[in-house]
Write a sequence for this structure.
Protein backbone atom coordinates (compact mmCIF):
# COMPACT_ATOMS: atom_id res chain seq x y z
CA UNK A 1 0.00 0.00 0.00
CA UNK A 2 1.25 3.51 -0.76
CA UNK A 3 0.99 6.13 1.92
CA UNK A 4 1.46 9.62 0.53
CA UNK A 5 1.82 12.32 3.14
CA UNK A 6 2.80 15.59 1.58
CA UNK A 7 2.77 18.37 4.14
CA UNK A 8 2.50 21.98 3.08
CA UNK A 9 1.10 20.69 -0.18
CA UNK A 10 -0.80 23.90 -0.75
CA UNK A 11 2.53 25.71 -0.93
CA UNK A 12 3.65 23.65 -3.90
CA UNK A 13 3.26 25.64 -7.08
CA UNK A 14 5.36 25.05 -10.13
CA UNK A 15 6.88 28.45 -10.88
CA UNK A 16 8.26 29.07 -14.39
CA UNK A 17 12.05 29.34 -14.85
CA UNK A 18 12.79 28.03 -11.38
CA UNK A 19 15.03 24.99 -10.99
CA UNK A 20 13.54 22.52 -8.55
CA UNK A 21 15.42 20.22 -6.21
CA UNK A 22 14.15 17.16 -4.35
CA UNK A 23 16.27 16.04 -1.40
CA UNK A 24 16.29 12.43 -0.22
CA UNK A 25 17.61 11.67 3.27
CA UNK A 26 17.37 8.92 5.86
CA UNK A 27 18.62 10.62 8.99
CA UNK A 28 19.73 13.88 10.56
CA UNK A 29 19.82 15.97 7.41
CA UNK A 30 22.52 18.49 8.29
CA UNK A 31 23.52 18.59 4.61
CA UNK A 32 19.88 18.99 3.61
CA UNK A 33 19.61 21.98 5.92
CA UNK A 34 22.74 23.63 4.47
CA UNK A 35 21.35 23.14 0.96
CA UNK A 36 17.96 24.58 1.96
CA UNK A 37 19.62 27.58 3.62
CA UNK A 38 21.92 28.13 0.65
CA UNK A 39 19.00 28.44 -1.77
CA UNK A 40 16.65 30.41 0.51
CA UNK A 41 17.66 33.71 -1.08
CA UNK A 42 18.06 32.39 -4.61
CA UNK A 43 14.96 33.14 -6.67
CA UNK A 44 16.06 30.78 -9.45
CA UNK A 45 16.27 27.64 -7.32
CA UNK A 46 13.83 26.02 -4.95
CA UNK A 47 14.05 22.99 -2.69
CA UNK A 48 10.58 21.74 -3.57
CA UNK A 49 10.32 18.64 -1.44
CA UNK A 50 12.22 16.51 1.07
CA UNK A 51 11.69 12.76 0.95
CA UNK A 52 12.61 10.25 3.63
CA UNK A 53 12.37 6.50 4.06
CA UNK A 54 11.83 6.79 7.83
CA UNK A 55 9.04 8.72 9.54
CA UNK A 56 11.39 9.54 12.45
CA UNK A 57 14.20 10.98 10.28
CA UNK A 58 15.17 14.33 11.79
CA UNK A 59 15.50 15.77 8.29
CA UNK A 60 11.68 15.92 8.22
CA UNK A 61 11.68 18.28 11.20
CA UNK A 62 14.28 20.44 9.50
CA UNK A 63 12.12 20.60 6.34
CA UNK A 64 9.05 21.48 8.42
CA UNK A 65 10.98 24.34 10.00
CA UNK A 66 11.40 25.83 6.53
CA UNK A 67 7.82 24.90 5.52
CA UNK A 68 9.11 22.62 2.81
CA UNK A 69 6.77 19.78 1.81
CA UNK A 70 7.86 16.30 2.85
CA UNK A 71 7.01 12.82 1.77
CA UNK A 72 7.75 9.59 3.64
CA UNK A 73 7.71 6.32 1.75
CA UNK A 74 8.18 2.71 2.70
CA UNK A 75 10.08 -0.09 0.94
CA UNK A 76 7.02 -1.31 -0.88
CA UNK A 77 6.21 2.08 -2.35
CA UNK A 78 9.84 2.78 -3.27
CA UNK A 79 10.74 -0.54 -4.85
CA UNK A 80 7.39 -1.87 -6.06
CA UNK A 81 5.51 1.16 -7.39
CA UNK A 82 6.02 4.27 -9.51
CA UNK A 83 4.52 6.56 -6.85
CA UNK A 84 7.76 8.34 -5.99
CA UNK A 85 8.64 8.81 -9.69
CA UNK A 86 5.18 10.21 -10.37
CA UNK A 87 5.37 12.57 -7.43
CA UNK A 88 8.75 13.95 -8.58
CA UNK A 89 7.54 14.27 -12.17
CA UNK A 90 4.40 16.09 -11.06
CA UNK A 91 6.63 18.63 -9.30
CA UNK A 92 8.88 19.04 -12.39
CA UNK A 93 11.96 18.19 -10.36
CA UNK A 94 15.22 19.11 -12.13
CA UNK A 95 17.70 17.56 -9.72
CA UNK A 96 17.46 14.82 -7.10
CA UNK A 97 19.97 15.30 -4.30
CA UNK A 98 20.76 12.40 -1.99
CA UNK A 99 22.00 13.68 1.36
CA UNK A 100 22.56 10.77 3.70
CA UNK A 101 20.04 8.54 1.95
CA UNK A 102 20.86 4.90 2.66
CA UNK A 103 18.69 2.90 0.24
CA UNK A 104 19.79 1.92 -3.25
CA UNK A 105 18.00 3.97 -5.93
CA UNK A 106 15.69 1.74 -7.99
CA UNK A 107 15.93 1.48 -11.76
CA UNK A 108 12.59 3.21 -12.45
CA UNK A 109 13.85 6.36 -10.72
CA UNK A 110 17.23 6.30 -12.49
CA UNK A 111 15.51 5.84 -15.87
CA UNK A 112 13.06 8.68 -15.18
CA UNK A 113 15.84 11.06 -14.08
CA UNK A 114 18.96 10.11 -16.09
CA UNK A 115 22.05 12.06 -14.90
CA UNK A 116 19.77 14.07 -12.63
CA UNK A 117 20.51 12.24 -9.37
CA UNK A 118 23.58 13.05 -7.28
CA UNK A 119 24.97 11.79 -3.98
CA UNK A 120 27.59 12.81 -1.44
CA UNK A 121 29.90 10.25 0.13
CA UNK A 122 32.16 10.92 3.13
CA UNK A 123 35.38 9.50 1.60
CA UNK A 124 37.47 9.69 -1.53
CA UNK A 125 35.76 7.25 -3.88
CA UNK A 126 36.43 4.75 -5.35
CA UNK A 127 38.06 3.93 -2.00
CA UNK A 128 35.85 3.23 1.01
CA UNK A 129 32.54 3.03 -0.84
CA UNK A 130 29.93 0.39 -1.60
CA UNK A 131 27.14 -1.35 0.25
CA UNK A 132 27.32 -0.95 4.02
CA UNK A 133 29.90 1.84 3.81
CA UNK A 134 28.18 4.76 5.46
CA UNK A 135 28.61 7.02 8.48
CA UNK A 136 31.33 6.10 10.93
CA UNK A 137 31.90 2.74 9.25
CA UNK A 138 33.60 4.68 6.45
CA UNK A 139 35.76 6.69 8.83
CA UNK A 140 36.75 3.57 10.83
CA UNK A 141 37.85 1.87 7.62
CA UNK A 142 39.87 4.94 6.64
CA UNK A 143 41.65 4.96 10.02
CA UNK A 144 42.27 1.21 9.93
CA UNK A 145 43.87 1.60 6.52
CA UNK A 146 46.20 4.25 8.03
CA UNK A 147 45.31 6.74 5.29
CA UNK A 148 47.13 10.08 5.42
CA UNK A 149 44.14 11.91 3.97
CA UNK A 150 40.44 11.51 3.40
CA UNK A 151 37.74 13.68 1.93
CA UNK A 152 34.36 13.88 0.30
CA UNK A 153 33.03 12.82 -3.08
CA UNK A 154 30.00 14.19 -4.90
CA UNK A 155 28.98 11.92 -7.74
CA UNK A 156 26.17 10.96 -10.11
CA UNK A 157 24.07 8.04 -8.99
CA UNK A 158 23.65 4.83 -10.93
CA UNK A 159 22.16 1.49 -9.95
CA UNK A 160 25.19 0.55 -7.80
CA UNK A 161 26.19 2.04 -4.46
CA UNK A 162 28.78 4.85 -4.82
CA UNK A 163 29.80 4.04 -8.40
CA UNK A 164 28.51 6.87 -10.61
CA UNK A 165 30.72 9.43 -12.35
CA UNK A 166 32.57 11.72 -9.93
CA UNK A 167 31.63 15.41 -10.06
CA UNK A 168 33.70 16.82 -7.20
CA UNK A 169 36.19 15.74 -4.55
CA UNK A 170 37.75 17.71 -1.68
CA UNK A 171 40.39 16.41 0.72
CA UNK A 172 41.54 16.96 4.27
CA UNK A 173 44.65 15.72 6.08
CA UNK A 174 44.43 13.07 8.76
CA UNK A 175 46.68 14.21 11.62
CA UNK A 176 48.28 11.92 14.17
CA UNK A 177 45.75 11.32 16.95
CA UNK A 178 42.69 12.04 14.82
CA UNK A 179 39.89 9.69 15.83
CA UNK A 180 36.65 8.77 14.05
CA UNK A 181 34.83 11.78 15.50
CA UNK A 182 37.52 14.17 14.37
CA UNK A 183 37.66 12.93 10.80
CA UNK A 184 33.85 12.80 10.68
CA UNK A 185 33.88 16.46 11.76
CA UNK A 186 36.49 17.44 9.17
CA UNK A 187 34.50 15.68 6.45
CA UNK A 188 31.22 17.28 7.51
CA UNK A 189 32.76 20.76 7.32
CA UNK A 190 33.80 20.08 3.73
CA UNK A 191 30.40 18.62 2.86
CA UNK A 192 28.53 21.64 4.19
CA UNK A 193 30.85 23.98 2.32
CA UNK A 194 30.88 22.25 -1.06
CA UNK A 195 27.60 20.39 -1.60
CA UNK A 196 25.38 23.49 -1.98
CA UNK A 197 27.90 25.15 -4.35
CA UNK A 198 28.29 22.03 -6.50
CA UNK A 199 24.49 21.78 -6.76
CA UNK A 200 24.26 25.44 -7.75
CA UNK A 201 26.86 24.95 -10.49
CA UNK A 202 25.11 21.88 -11.86
CA UNK A 203 21.81 23.74 -12.00
CA UNK A 204 23.46 26.70 -13.75
CA UNK A 205 24.85 24.36 -16.41
CA UNK A 206 21.38 22.88 -16.89
CA UNK A 207 19.87 26.27 -17.67
CA UNK A 208 22.21 26.84 -20.62
C1 LIG B 1 27.05 12.56 5.16
O1 LIG B 1 28.26 12.30 5.76
C2 LIG B 1 27.07 12.11 3.72
O2 LIG B 1 28.36 12.09 3.17
C3 LIG B 1 26.54 10.72 3.79
O3 LIG B 1 25.61 10.73 4.83
C4 LIG B 1 25.93 11.75 5.75
C5 LIG B 1 24.68 12.55 5.98
O4 LIG B 1 24.80 13.43 7.05
N1 LIG B 1 26.02 10.29 2.53
P1 LIG B 1 23.64 14.45 7.38
O5 LIG B 1 22.37 13.64 7.63
O6 LIG B 1 23.50 15.36 6.22
O7 LIG B 1 24.08 15.16 8.62
Amino acid sequence: MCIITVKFFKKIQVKPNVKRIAIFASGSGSNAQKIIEHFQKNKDVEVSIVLANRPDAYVLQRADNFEIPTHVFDRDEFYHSDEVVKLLQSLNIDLIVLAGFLWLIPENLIKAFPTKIINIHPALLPKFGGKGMYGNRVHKAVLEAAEQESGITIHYVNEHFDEGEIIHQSKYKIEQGDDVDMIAYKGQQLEHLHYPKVIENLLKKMSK
User: Anything to note?
Assistant: The chain has seven helices and seven strands. Residues 18-121+152-170+191-207 form a domain with the Rossmann fold fold (CATH 3.40.50.170). The chain has a mean pLDDT of 93.
